[in-house]
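User: quick one, sequence for these tokens?
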């Protein structure tokens, strides 16, 4: 399979991976032929690319970290909690679930088990979801990314659970933000920005009241917009004044936000987002944490279509943690536009004269 921009899809091509709704259930399943009507509907829902079945890339599968059932359960739990907070004003200011800690500890342990059964701790997030489900799937992705960094740092199980639950619930304060503000496409006024920024303290106030949730997890909500140089909010603290869990969540939050399609901008490619993260080292984030994070992120995820400096169009087939910028690629179109009689693979670690110049 390969990832293709939706405006390059030909009607009749089949979906290779499902597309998820906000509650974690499947909107369109794998194997579904994409008619013109479906393609237009997906564009209306804010989806800019999908995975399609393709004989030329047969056998290439994205490095998805989570099983579909694990993602569904996690998104469903977050959706239930946040939807209850948003739709029932009487619950605001207190926990919507009597056993929030137990619920999300079980959910995160499912995520952790999926991550720890992989041969390497290398992030793969290939799911597609609608704009309306961004908040829920974003929380799942942040938990996955934070968990991977916690494992890389050698955290024990209790530390991983505290970090993971903080990562899943870090944006719970967004349930206090008016819906029209969450969906606004233009710039915020000063008053709107102040309302939006209150989600950090609102989230902390909600989580710290939970008897079955660590106060360290609650600090992920409070501090995930603090910045290493003191330029963040709500308190403008800096460097080691920011708890390491919150720093990890902040890095995971920004990376996943950059690489997600939003109503007001196009997504960044992983390589562009990694470049931003390094540039923000010791300004927004601790540089050593950024280095650790980026060493576990694929610059060119498997199934991504790329153009080489030779002009050949390829699909990424395999990644290597020790050489994240030099994957194995499968050539699907030569520089002159012809399709090879038999697709073949090139290991960019051995072909140093070739470089990836862009994604397509």
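Assistant:
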């Amino acid at each position: 399979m390969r990832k293709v921009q939706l405006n390059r899809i030909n009607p009749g091509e089949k979906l290779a991976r499902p597309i998820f709704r906000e509650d974690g259930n499947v909107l369109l399943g794998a194997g579904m032929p994409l008619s013109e009507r479906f393609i237009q509907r997906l564009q209306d829902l804010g989806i800019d690319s999908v995975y399609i079945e393709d004989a030329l890339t047969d056998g290439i599968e994205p490095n998805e970290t989570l099983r579909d059932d694990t993602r569904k359960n996690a998104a469903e739990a977050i959706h239930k909690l946040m939807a209850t907070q948003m739709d029932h004003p009487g619950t605001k200011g207190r926990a919507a679930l009597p056993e929030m800690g137990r619920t999300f500890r079980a959910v995160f342990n499912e995520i952790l088990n999926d991550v720890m059964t992989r041969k390497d701790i290398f992030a793969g997030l290939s799911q597609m979801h609608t704009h309306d489900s961004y908040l829920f799937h974003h929380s799942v992705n942040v938990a996955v990314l934070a968990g991977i960094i916690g494992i890389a740092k050698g955290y024990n199980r209790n530390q991983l659970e505290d970090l993971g639950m903080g990562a899943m619930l870090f944006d719970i304060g967004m349930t206090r933000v008016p819906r029209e503000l969450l969906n606004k496409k233009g710039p915020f006024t000063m008053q709107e920005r102040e309302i939006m920024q209150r989600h950090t303290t609102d989230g902390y106030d909600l989580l710290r009241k939970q008897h079955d949730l660590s106060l360290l997890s609650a600090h992920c909500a409070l501090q995930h917009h603090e910045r290493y140089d003191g330029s963040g909010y709500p308190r403008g603290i800096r460097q080691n004044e920011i708890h390491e869990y919150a720093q990890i969540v902040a890095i995971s939050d920004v990376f996943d936000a950059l690489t997600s399609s939003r109503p007001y901008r196009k997504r960044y490619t992983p390589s562009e987002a990694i470049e931003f993260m390094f540039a923000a080292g010791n300004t927004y984030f601790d540089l050593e944490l950024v280095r650790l994070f980026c060493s576990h992120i694929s610059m060119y995820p498997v199934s991504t279509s790329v153009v080489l400096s030779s002009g050949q169009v390829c699909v990424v087939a395999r990644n290597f943690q020790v050489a994240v910028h030099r994957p194995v690629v499968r050539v699907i179109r030569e520089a002159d536009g012809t399709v090879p009689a038999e697709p073949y693979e090139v290991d960019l670690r051995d072909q140093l004269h070739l470089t990836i110049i862009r994604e397509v």
